[in-house]
Amino acid sequence: MLLTTYNVIIVFSHLAWVQTDRKSDGLGYLKYPLISDITKSISKSFGVLIPDQYFSNCRCQRSIFLIADVNNVVTITLLK
């Protein structure tokens, strides 16, 4: 199993997060990759896009997916 995270912001925001330490509300060093889903294709495939007139017509529901392998999603948690 591979731990990763993704969101719909650009990679420059990821870079800023990892270059900022946690005491300053950043992420600091991570042992797993951050993936930018700027095209929202991952979000769409997992069904977590929400229509929203203020966020370029849709935004991503904060979610956690535990994926065991290519065809096996173990759990999905939608966050508020």
Automatic annotation (TrEMBL):
KW Oxidoreductase (keyword) present: yes
One BP annotation, GO: cell redox homeostasis
InterPro entries found in the cross-reference section: AhpC/TSA (IPR000866), Peroxiredoxin (IPR050217), Thioredoxin-like_sf (IPR036249)
Alphabetical keyword list: Oxidoreductase
Domain Alkyl hydroperoxide reductase subunit C/ Thiol specific antioxidant residue range list: 12-74
Keyword Oxidoreductase belongs to the record: yes
GO MF terms, alphabetically ordered: thioredoxin peroxidase activity
Family label: Belongs to the peroxiredoxin family. AhpC/Prx1 subfamily.
Role: Thiol-specific peroxidase that catalyzes the reduction of hydrogen peroxide and organic hydroperoxides to water and alcohols, respectively. Plays a role in cell protection against oxidative stress by detoxifying peroxides. May be an antioxidant enzyme particularly in the developing shoot and photosynthesizing leaf.
Listed name of the protein: Alkyl hydroperoxide reductase subunit C/ Thiol specific antioxidant domain-containing protein
Organism annotation: Vigna angularis var. angularis
Designated gene of the protein: Vigan.08G059000
